[in-house]
Amino acid sequence: MVHTKKDRGSLQEARDQGTKVPNFFGKSERARQYEFYGLISTHFASIPQHTSEGSIFVVWFGTTPRLTISDPALIRQILVEKSEFFEKNESPALVRELEGDGLLSLKGEKWAHHRKIIQPMFHTENLKLMVPIMGKSMEEATEKWSEEMGLTSGGKMEVEVSDWYKKLVEEVIARATFGGSYQDGRPIFELQAQQMVHATQAYHQVFIPGYRLLPTKKNINSRRLEKEVRKSLVNLIDGRMRNKDTAFHKDLLGLMINATTTTTDDPELEITVNDIVQECKTIFFAGKHTTIQLLTWTTVLLAAHPQWQELARHEVLTVCGSRDIPTEDHLPKLKLLSMILNESLRLYPPAVAMIRRAKGDIRLGGGLHVLRGTELLIPILAVHHDPALWGGDAHEFNPMRFAKGVAHAAKHPMAFLPFGLGTRRCIGQNLAILQAKLAIAIILRRFSFELADDYSHSPSVLMLLHPQHGAPMLFRKLN
């Protein structure tokens, strides 16, 4: 049976409810998480609490009905077993300008062609080669942070960690995208940050055909930013293409430029400068913000649970010994840290939901007949917090649930999907995990940290799940 629920409040109203809770982490984890749900969206909050109604029901997005499916068996059919019958929904135009018409939004043969070209960038061997470079950048950053904070042994300093991680991740993503030209790519991040403000507003507003063509102040500014981003990227691409004597490494720019020289029988699959621009924008946006939120929420959780912070620190010191920077051989041995990162992704997935549209009439398990054009909403956040899947402690921070691996962490192997599932699983997930593990390990060696008194727990959706009021921490330099 499919049930219908009314969305009892707008997302904007939910976001605006964030209030300071001085003793927030003194409350039980369960109470804390139910408050957390209320701050995100009422229909996400209600999904795990209505299992008696079934795991399938309709929610309304304005005048558009969306079939919400939180049953992992059905999710596997949609994203894996019968994925060819579904496609991604169209994002608002301003969102597409920000994230690019790259792997996030492409469909069909063109998507498959682009993914095949870009895939080598994320191969394990290529990522291993990036570890020393990433480690050196992160070590330099932590040394600079220590100097800027003026920390002495036993001293404390308040730090906004999301700002820290923003600078850290930007450099890594710029290197992965542009290789030796990464310094020239940095200004693009600032332009994208301005674009994100406009895109976020569009993401949460009802679509009005033709509105973005009106000469409003916001629309004029959006078009200016888009032109500046494109111009900056085209200049970088042209400079790289002119430098024919330099061998192209396995960074995004090199892989895409090499693909422009490859002939294909289908003109639609030929790689153009515009294709390269769009993929650079996609990697810049998705790669940067996903990793920043993973690092931020993991730090919040470790600050709120000092016993786990100490256990993770002990593992880093035991595995890495006297080395300040973990090597590519050390990282796979940091098992507890991997479990902590997975638990962070479970409690605070970067994307709270994903939407697919049926390309034709299709039958799913349980006698569910989905008509062509139907939108299906998969509420990642709700699935990750469902006690029926994760047990009575579903709302608690418990990394040990991943002790036997992701496949055995829940009652269904498809209940954990922070990066999606199937062929459209996030191509950069290994890079994000690698960056996060390396950064947290380096920070644990150098600092202990706790939540600042003015920390206000208010998870909010700004395209991705982030702390609405930031994540201020008190850091102490370790001997």
Automatic annotation (TrEMBL):
<dbReference type="GO" id="GO:0005506">
    <property type="term" value="F:iron ion binding"/>
</dbReference>
<keyword id="KW-0560">Oxidoreductase</keyword>
<keyword id="KW-1133">Transmembrane helix</keyword>
<dbReference type="InterPro" id="IPR002401">
    <property type="entry name" value="Cyt_P450_E_grp-I"/>
</dbReference>
<dbReference type="InterPro" id="IPR050665">
    <property type="entry name" value="Cytochrome_P450_Monooxygen"/>
</dbReference>
<keyword id="KW-0408">Iron</keyword>
<dbReference type="GO" id="GO:0016705">
    <property type="term" value="F:oxidoreductase activity, acting on paired donors, with incorporation or reduction of molecular oxygen"/>
</dbReference>
<dbReference type="GO" id="GO:0009753">
    <property type="term" value="P:response to jasmonic acid"/>
</dbReference>
<keyword id="KW-0472">Membrane</keyword>
<keyword id="KW-0503">Monooxygenase</keyword>
<keyword id="KW-0349">Heme</keyword>
<dbReference type="InterPro" id="IPR001128">
    <property type="entry name" value="Cyt_P450"/>
</dbReference>
<protein>
    <recommendedName>
        <fullName>Cytochrome P450 734A1-like</fullName>
    </recommendedName>
</protein>
<dbReference type="GO" id="GO:0004497">
    <property type="term" value="F:monooxygenase activity"/>
</dbReference>
<comment type="similarity">
    <text>Belongs to the cytochrome P450 family.</text>
</comment>
<dbReference type="InterPro" id="IPR036396">
    <property type="entry name" value="Cyt_P450_sf"/>
</dbReference>
<dbReference type="GO" id="GO:0016020">
    <property type="term" value="C:membrane"/>
</dbReference>
<dbReference type="GO" id="GO:0020037">
    <property type="term" value="F:heme binding"/>
</dbReference>
<feature type="binding site" description="axial binding residue">
    <location>
        <position position="426"/>
    </location>
    <ligand>
        <name>heme</name>
    </ligand>
</feature>
<dbReference type="GO" id="GO:0016131">
    <property type="term" value="P:brassinosteroid metabolic process"/>
</dbReference>
<dbReference type="GO" id="GO:0009820">
    <property type="term" value="P:alkaloid metabolic process"/>
</dbReference>
<keyword id="KW-0479">Metal-binding</keyword>
<dbReference type="GO" id="GO:0010268">
    <property type="term" value="P:brassinosteroid homeostasis"/>
</dbReference>
<dbReference type="InterPro" id="IPR017972">
    <property type="entry name" value="Cyt_P450_CS"/>
</dbReference>
<dbReference type="Pfam" id="PF00067">
    <property type="entry name" value="p450"/>
</dbReference>
<keyword id="KW-0812">Transmembrane</keyword>
